[in-house]
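Researcher: Predict the fold of YlxR family protein.
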Amino acid sequence: MKNKKVPLRQCVGCGQMKGKKEMMRVLRTAEGDILLDTTGKKNGRGAYLCRSMECLKKARKNRGLERSFKMGIPNEVYDKLEKEFEEFEAE
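Model: Structure tokens for YlxR family protein follow.
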């Protein structure tokens, strides 16, 4: 039997390669909205982050999401993502 290939994604915060299921997907929709995609199946451009607040802070500092999405991201969006991350970690 063949082993099933695990899709790997790189964290835009710390740069580590991990399995797709172990990471959170940040999504840019066609309208330009940026949100957290907990299902990993919504339409749009995706960037991946480890499931830790530290990686989100690193991505904010090193502008990882801005590079992935090729657009500027205002601080309000990062604040909203931090709140969504906190809610997800609390579950």
